[in-house]
Amino acid sequence: MLQNVVPVITTASESYGITSIEEFARKLITKIMNPELLSKVNAELLRGDCVEVHGLTALPAWVKGNYKLIGDCKYKIYVLDEEQKTDFAENVLILKKLKLSIGVGSKRGADTKLIKYAVLDVLDRLDVSIDRVDVIASVHENIKNVAEELGIRFMLVPLSDIGKFRSNDDCLTPPSEALTRLGVMGVAEPLALIAGGPTARLIMRKVVYDGEVTIAVAAHE
């Protein structure tokens, strides 16, 4: 029955101008580890009662509802890094931060300064820090210099691997005629998914910079 209840609560939260827990978790790019608490915590917010948030230095500007960083609240949310323990009381909803993988598509010889700017820009758009990024992937070896400069692991992916890649992720941008002729679904988006592994899901479709560079981002466990 819980599966039938959660969407109703979520819809009610949105209709009252309250950020539901599901939306809160999605925008923070986290995974809800104990979803059985969702209906109770959402209901708490609907009643106007507070929910205490731990693991953030400040509440994001987009949050609506009685979320508090400090308060004597019945329910609490802990936003945790991947390596932290998850053994908490029954009134604690756990959100585990997902790692990010960035796919970089670029023309051969593209300016590495533009590539670095593009990577930092997408992170700014997502409102996440660079330490959330696990890997940068490209078909070009020179992108390794950008990754090293940013302190991020680099993965070189052969174009043939992109050609073999298949995904059920419905967020993928339909390939252009040029990409179809090359026999690939895309470049930046498949790279982000390949680098993230089997749990990766696209959270930002490719963004084009100056017609030279494309950046896509996936989240993974």
Q: Which features does this protein show?
A:
alpha/beta; 221 residues; 10 strands; elongated; 5-stranded mixed beta sheet; Nucleotidyltransferase, domain 5
What is the strand and helix layout of this fold?
Elements lengths: L1 H14 L5 H7 L2 E3 L5 H9 L4 E4 L12 E2 L6 E6 L11 E6 L1 E8 L5 H15 L6 E6 L4 H8 L2 E4 L2 H6 L12 H6 L5 H9 L4 E9 L3 E8 L1
Parallel strand pairs: 2-3, 2-4, 4-5, 6-7, 7-8
Antiparallel strand pairs: 1-5, 6-10, 9-10
Helix pairs in contact: 1-3, 4-5
Quick summary of this structure?
With 221 residues, the protein is α/β, with parallel strands linked by helices. It has 8 helices and 10 strands.
Instruction: Report the span from N to C terminus.
Output: 28 Å
| Helix content, binned percent | 25-40%
Mean pLDDT: 89
Which shape, going by the Cα principal axes?
elongated
User: Could you give the count of β-strands?
Assistant: 10
CATH topology of the largest domain: Nucleotidyltransferase, domain 5
* CATH C-level name of the largest domain: Alpha Beta
Radius of gyration: 20 Å
The CATH homologous superfamily of the largest domain corresponds to CobE/GbiG C-terminal domain
Proportion of residues in β-strands: 25-35%
Note the run of SSEs as H and E. Answer: HHEHEEEEEHEHEHHHEE
Q: How many structural domains does the protein architecture include?
A: 2
Structure description:
- By secondary structure, this protein is an alpha/beta fold.
- The chain has two domains: 2-97, Udp-n-acetylmuramoylalanyl-d-glutamate--2,6- Diaminopimelate Ligase, Chain: A, domain 1 (3-Layer(aba) Sandwich); 99-220, CobE/GbiG C-terminal domain (Nucleotidyltransferase, domain 5, 2-Layer Sandwich), CATH 3.30.420.
- Helices cover 33% and strands 25% of the residues.
- The protein has helices spanning 2-15, 21-27, 38-46, 112-126, 143-150, 159-164, 177-182, 188-196; strands at 30-32, 51-54, 67-68, 75-80, 92-97, 99-106, 133-138, 153-156, 201-209, 213-220.
- The strands form two sheets. Strands 1-5-4-2-3 form a five-stranded mixed β-sheet.
- Strand 9 and strand 10 (213-220) form a beta hairpin.
- The radius of gyration is 20 Å and the shape is elongated.
- The two termini are 28 Å apart.
- Mean pLDDT is 89; it is low at 1-10.
